[in-house]
Every structure is written in C-alpha cells, then in structure tokens.
Hints:
Blueprint: H1 2-14, H2 20-31, H3 36-43, H4 49-85, H5 103-116, E1 121-122, E2 128-130, H6 131-134, E3 154-155, E4 158-163, H7 168-177, E5 182-191, E6 203-213, H8 218-233, E7 238-245, E8 248-257, H9 263-268, E9 274-283, H10 285-290, E10 299-306, H11 307-315, H12 322-325, H13 328-331
Parallel strand pairs: 1-5
Antiparallel strand pairs: 2-4, 3-4, 5-6, 6-10, 7-8, 8-9, 9-10
Helix pairs in contact: 1-4, 2-4, 5-11
Bound molecules: 3,4-dihydroxyphenylalanine (DAH).
Amino acid sequence: xxxxxKELIAEADAxxxxxxxxxEAFRIKFLGKKGLLNTYFAEFRNVANDQKKEFGQAINQxxxxxxxxxxxxxEGLANSEEAVSSGDLSRPGDPVSIGARHPISIVKNQxxxxxxxxxxxxxxxxxxxxxxHNFTALNLPEYHPAxxxxxxxxxxxxxxxxxxxxxxxxxxRYMENNVPPIRTISPGRxxxxxxxxxxxxxxxxxxxxxxxxxxVSFADLKQTLQYFTTEMFGKSKIRLRPSYxxxxxxxxxxxxxxxxxTETDHKIxxxxxxxxxxxxxxxxPNVLKNCNIDPEEYSGFAFxxxxxxxxxxxxxxxxxxxxxxxxVRFLEQFKSAL
Length: 338
Ligand code: DAH
C-alpha cells in the first residue's frame, strides 16, 4: 500500500493543467470527501503497528503535495486570467495616453533655453500685483494717459491691487531685490480687460527681458534681439521701429523680417513681410531710480515679447482661444513637439 501511495505522490507532483475544471477534478480525486486521501486515512487503523509511522508519513506527504499543487495551479490560473483581461503579454498592449506639453510651455521653454545660453536667469513675480510694481515704478504715475494703453482689471475693493497687465512688473521687483549686473527674463501670464476674439483674450503670456550693467547700449539691445530671433525663428533680419513706452527711453517696436515667399507669409505679415513680436528700449533713468539703481552708474535695456503670438506663429494656430480652452484634440497635436 505504501508503494501505491508513493506512486500517487509522484502523480500528484507531476500533475499540471491550464484548465480550472481539471484542477477541480484533481482536487476532488485527491482531497475530496470521498477522495483518495480520506480513503487512505480510513485505512490507517488497519495498518500493522510497526508500519503505522511510515504509512502516516506517506499519507501526510500525499496530502501536502496534493494541497500545494491545487493552490499553485489555482494561483497560476488566476494570474493568467488577469493577464488576459488586462492585455496578455503576447497581445499588443492597451494604448497608454501620454500627455503633451502645452504650446505655451513649449515656446516658453524654448525662450528660456535661448536666453540662458547667453547668461540670463529666469525670474517670476505675482500675477496679482500692486499699483507700484505694475505702473508707478515703471514711470506711469497716477493719471498718466499711457495707463489707458492697457485695460486693467482692478480688484474692486482696493484700487491699489490689480491683475498685472504686463510682465514689466517683474523688472521692478527684480531690480528692487538684486544689484547689477542683472540679466534676467521673466515669463508669465498677464491680464487685460479686452473683448475676447480669435486675436485677443483677457489673459495671455509675455516674456520680459532685462539687462542692467555698466555701459549697456542700444547696440547691445539690438544684438541680443537679433540673436533671439535667429535662434527662435531662424530669421536674423530685424527692424526696431521708434515707439513709446513710459518705462523705456528711447523705445521701439521689434519687427522680424518673416519673408514673403508663401501665401501664409503674405497673410501673417499683411503683405509687408514684417512681423511685430514685441516692444523694447533702454530702461528709463526714472525707473532705475525708482528701483534704487543709480542711473549715473548703470544703464540697461528691457524688452517684452508675447508668447502666445509666437506660439501661434510657429505652430500655425489661427485662434488664440484654442490656447486656453484645453481641448485635448488640440493639445494632443503637440505630442511630437519639444
Ligand atoms: N510691457 C509692454 C507691453 O505689455 C511690452 C514692453 C515694451 C516691455 C517695451 C518692455 C519694453 O520691457 O521695454 O506692451
């Protein structure tokens, strides 16, 4: 009988299957109420005393072997069922949706890279700003008519607090807290009380640039902008058109020569070949004074460019509203971008 049990142990040990039913049949055959084990346990009392020990050990071994086998087979089947339902290793996996960077972030990061290559750091300031940093320190005292150039959202209960209308406010904060030489760019969101259309929105993004040191000249400004447009657009021809900003003197609008080769070139440049990307100028001595920098010792330049505008140009986005709606069908298209 002991030999028979040893055969069964070998049989149980060798058993394998992929089917739930066969595992169950195995279990019933060995461990079921009327199964082999119970039959042998019942035989136990008929076994001769001197064989009881060996016999007992044998059926215990059979029991453990059969029980372990059932457990491992069941576990294996459960795992492979899970694998089948969640994508078998041999099947193509379920598509995993990876995110894409927002076009504003893509362009912002490019601008940061370009300027960090020439020693500019990145600074930030608050979007909820006070009158001093957004206007007064930038040479725009109360009642200055140029304040109307930027339709401002004020906080109703406190006219001193507003949503910043430009990132030039960060210039002021940076100069107040640092000593020259200063080379910084400040990307961020700005707000204007404007009617929303395909071309304008009540918030958008700018990058402010500021360079303050001894003997900084307009030539440095022009050279820096030219470097920027070459890196950003692959266009090195720029034009600085005289303009007016209260915080710079002299001031200029920055135009890039885009070309007139394609129909799109004609469309986006309105037939002129030139494209305006921002404003710039030499920091007004009053602004330096307001920020505790001596204009007799230091000079500098500043500029401000629109990130949304650049993103729209580079990625041929025709409606600025797409940049804030966060429609995944739009955003998904930037997966292959940086
Ligand atoms: N702050 C200006 C605006 O929002 C842009 C600008 C113009 C920034 C000239 C400058 C600058 O730093 O020098 O329209």
